[in-house]
Amino acid sequence: MDAVSSLSARVHQFDALRGLAVLMILFANIFAFAYPLELAEKAGLSDSISVLSQVQHQLYLVFIRGKFISLLTLLFGASLYLLWHQSGSSAIKLKARMSALLLMGLCHAMFVWSGDILLMYAVVASGLLWQQALSWTPDHQLRYAKHYLAAGLVLPTLIWLAPGGQVEEPAETAKLLAVYTGSYSDQLWHQFKYVGLLVFDLLFVSYWWFGGMMLLAIWGMQSDWQALLKKHFYKLVLIAFGCALVPLAWTGLSVEKQSPLSFQMISDLCFALIYIRLFMLVAPAFPKVIELLRYCGRCSLSLYLWQSVAMVLLFRWFCPEWFGVLDRASLTVIAASFLALQLLWVQLFYKNGQLWWFERLYRRLSVKLQTRAAQTRL
After folding, report:
1. How far is CA 156 from the centre of its chain?
2. How much of the chain is helix, strand and coil, in % rounded to 5?
3. 144 with 215: CB under 8 angstroms?
4. How far apart are CA 219 and CA 143, in angstroms?
């Protein structure tokens, strides 16, 4: 009975953390929604902006950009282990779920927003299942997690060391803006091509980096991960801030210079682990907030996809004159407003045990694919 209670409490904690991550990820994604994906990193930035705006941008890089996607990836790996454990160490159900997630992610990336993360998660998790990584010993998982993370840093490091590319010409920027706010067929063709580039990214960076984080989470689920985070907390803080400050020293607060991405990636992972530790420390003091975040975590797939649909409709269809124009402060206000609306919606309409729209679709697709796989085997 104690084991069941412990597992249930752990699931509730992860639900609340997932809710926090999926809400906060909008503050990072808002720039990719409101600008072409190719320009999102420099959205509304130039060396001519005020020092205050540059400092605000650097704070965003240190505490938000990449941190919550790393947190979401760790939680995805932990959930993968929990599902595998609950299914009696059988990967059949998990494979069906990842196939369903892959279909949803592919549709999302091609027809709504090519900055999708679901497709990436589904491919990486399917690869780990094919490798039978969940059956490895914890020592084996930790060793391969380190190897995968190191492999994922190779190409970003090489890109950083390579000579800087050409600055985007105004004419090229104007063409991109016209494509993103033009006819839907032009947008589709551009998104198809962009999704094609994800294959390259998966092969050389994302499979290894995201797979390493998932393996790290799977290993942590079989260890006393809370004790580990407590023990190594200050070491994580030093690494996180150290790797975050290297880009600042490299660029000198200039937004035009290319910053070392590999250092940012390491900082992102360390900050995600720090946020987990801090969340566990403060959670008992805010039970009502944690309960609301847990509800958000239970419908995180719907919240994530609604963010995409709403932001794409806002910037490309309802207010295309805003696309590629708004400054970062205005975009942050829009993100905060939509986050508040999502919290209000969840507070008013969430019911325990209820699956929201996209969660229901995900489950139905999973069941159908699992049934079809079973019939094929027979």
Report:
1. 18
2. 80, 0, 20
3. yes
4. 10
Rounded CA separation 269/67 (Å): 7
8 A C-beta contact, residue 294 and residue 19: yes
Tokens 């990072």 -> residue:
28
- CA nearest to 323, candidates 333, 334, 312: 312
- Smallest CA-to-CA distance from 115 within 308, 253, 281 is with 308
CA-to-CA distance for 337 and 342, rounded, in angstroms?
9
**For residues 302 and 13, is the Cβ–Cβ distance under 8 A?**
no
Long-range contacts of 313-316 (CB under 8 A, 24+ apart): 314/33, 315/33, 315/34, 316/180, 316/181, 316/187
What are the residues whose beta carbons fall under 8 Å from the beta carbon of 311, sequence distance 6 or more? 26, 29, 30, 33, 34, 113, 338
Query: Per residue in 192-218, is it b (16+ CB within 10 Å) or e — as a string?
Result: eebbeebeeebebbbbbbbbbbbbbbb
Q: Are 148 and 215 in contact (CB under 8 A)?
A: yes
What pTM value is reported for the model? 0.93
Vertex 267 angle, CA 195 and 43, to 5°: 50
Calpha distance 357→161 (Å, rounded): 45
Tens of pLDDT, residue by residue over 52-94, are: 777 788 888 889 999 999 999 999 999 999 989 887 777 888 9
Q: Which residue reads 């905060």 in tokens? A: 336
